[in-house]
Write a structure and sequence with these properties.
Number of strands: 4
CATH topology of the largest domain: Alpha-Beta Plaits
Number of helices: 6
Order of helices and strands: EHEEHHEHHH
Helix content: 40-55%
Strand order of the largest sheet: 2-3-1-4
Radius of gyration: 19 Å
Number of domains: 2
Length: 199
């Protein structure tokens, strides 16, 4: 249950915010969890400022951990949902399905690109570091992507061409390029953090 205020450091109350929520589901209760998720997601969509919700399903079925990614237009609206009676009721229904209390982390802006897989979400790197690594990712991704797509999309209207190419670019950066760059530059991005191990 959501007992304590979320610890979040954002400079503007109006910044879009993402909540990353992890649930370790009891083996054999995945179907019940899926039904639960669809129910709570439908209620979350009714709240002011809701921008979308999705889930990452587990690869390891012996230790099924689901990650819910919930987006709101500002922290205030996210907090309203997280502390609402409706969500509290849903969380009570969740308890028999999970092995331990849910874990909630909040991210804003570029921070969502700078998380390390299999590591707790930490305080984000300084903004200038995030900008430099993001610029590096865009610099190497977009020219190569454009070179590949130009022959395929040249017959399409300009707006549709741009819609497809920018959509693929953002998807590549989010799911492929930035996770690898964050791992590559982890010692520079997080110099004062606890060692991440040999990998």
């Amino acid at each position: 249950m959501f007992d304590e205020p979320l610890a979040i450091n954002i400079s503007k109350e109006s910044c879009p915010v993402t909540a990353v929520i992890s649930h370790v589901v009891r083996p054999g209760r995945e179907q019940g969890y899926e039904a639960w998720f669809h129910g709570i997601a439908a209620d979350a969509r009714k709240f002011k400022g809701h921008l979308g919700v999705s889930t990452i399903r587990p690869q390891d079925h012996a230790h099924p951990e689901y990650v819910v990614i919930l987006k709101f237009d500002c922290y205030g609206n996210l907090k309203t949902w997280l502390e609402s009676d409706i969500r509290r009721e849903w969380i009570e229904r969740l308890q028999p399905l999970i092995e331990k209390p849910e874990d909630i982390q909040t991210l804003t802006g570029l921070e969502t690109w700078f998380t390390l897989s299999n590591k707790p979400i930490m305080s984000p790197p300084p903004r200038y570091k995030m900008v430099l690594v993001s610029w590096l990712g865009v610099f190497f991704t977009l020219p190569q992507l454009n070179r590949l797509l130009v022959p395929l999309l040249s017959g399409l209207p300009v707006l549709l061409n741009q819609l497809i190419s920018t959509g693929l670019g953002v998807a590549l950066l989010t799911y492929v390029i930035m996770p690898r760059l964050t791992q590559l530059f982890r010692k520079w991005l997080y110099p004062s953090s606890v060692t991440f191990g040999s990998k």
